[in-house]
Amino acid sequence: MLVEVMGRHAGWIALNAGLATGAHATLIPEQPFDVEDVCRLVKKRFQHGSSHFICVVAEGAKPAPGSMELRQGGLDEFGHERFTGVAAQLAVEIEKRVKKDVRVTVLGHVQRGGTPTAYDRVLATRFGVNAADAAHAGEYGMMVSLRGQEIDRVPLADAVRQLKLVPQSRYDDAAAFFG
Question: What's the average model confidence in pLDDT over 74-91?
Answer without folding.
Answer: 87
